[in-house]
Amino acid sequence: MIESLRHLLLSYSETESTEQRAQIEAEIWERFGTERSVLIWDMSGFSLLTRRHGIIHYLSMVRRMQEVTRPIVSAHKGVMVKFEADNGFAVFPDPQCAILAALEMNTAFKQENTRHAEEFDIRISCGIDHGRILLVEGRDFFGDAVNIACKLGEDLAGPGEILVTQSAIKDMPESNAFTTQPIQLTISGIDLEASSIERKAEDS
Predict the structure, then answer these.
(1) Model confidence over 25-40: pLDDT tens digits?
(2) What CA–CA distance (Å, rounded) separates 34 from 31?
């Protein structure tokens, strides 16, 4: 399917016909378009840990991260799109599923870290957004929600932090599992309303 998308995108850029471009765009959205919540997580400490312990040490941690997070995604109705370096990329039917998955990941790593030496501790930062995207399941995805979730998870969230756009959760009912703390962020010069997610104390 990814080859079909690449072919359509190349055809879009090569044609000079506005009508044909509109037809190709419509076909792309018809075949690959969907509305999903995007969760992207990033492991913390790559440069420091690699310099201290070497790349094999860090890659072993990446492998453990993948093994821990994959079943959590599935358990919360999500689909893994891909792992790339020390990042994970997944989609969910709604923001609440994505948030609950991210919370469970943090809990799982806290438990994992008690069973390993400190230099093997894994901490992740998470970003979540919701919107219309292009999805090739098991291969890749594209869209504004992907870009925003990536910025939140990779650039702005700290270790153990979950950031979600306010637009993604504005219509979500209050949860018994977590609280939301509104914050203002700037991404690539764009002001963005978001929330920091924390598990409620009684569920910790």
Answers:
(1) 999 999 999 999 999 9
(2) 9
